[in-house]
Write a structure and sequence with these properties.
This protein is of the alpha+beta class and 107 residues long. The chain has helices at 6-12, 49-70, 78-106, and strands at 2-5, 26-30, 33-38.
């Protein structure tokens, strides 16, 4: 993975990426550290989209986890996150089912 400064990317644009081999991911870094990934699109990306979204979500959570640790809040595991998501999805499905039942009775 190549690293390019945000300043260079802003001033030179695509020219800043000319030396990056085709298909290689680029890390754009600013003064505060890594800021963005530039991920090349090769072939059918839809098959890899879920993994990419998961990686992005986990990366964006790291800062919140750090802040939680500083505030003395307990860590949450992946299993706990998955359980909360499953519970919310079940709750949403139950609401949708109840709404469709009410609508069918009205009609």
């Amino acid at each position: 993975m190549r690293q390019v400064s945000l300043r260079e990317f802003r001033t030179r644009g695509a020219k800043a990426l000319e030396k990056v081999p085709r298909g290689e991911t680029v890390l754009l870094a600013g003064q505060q550290g890594p800021a963005y990934f530039l991920v090349p699109v090769l072939g059918d990306i839809s098959a890899q989209e879920r993994d990419l979204q998961l990686a992005i979500a986990r990366a964006s959570l790291r800062e919140q986890w750090r802040l939680n640790a500083e505030a003395g809040l307990p860590e949450i595991t992946d299993e706990e996150i998955d359980a909360e998501i499953a519970a919310l999805r079940a709750e949403r499905l139950a609401r949708q089912h109840a709404r469709s039942s009410r609508e069918s009775r009205i009609a």
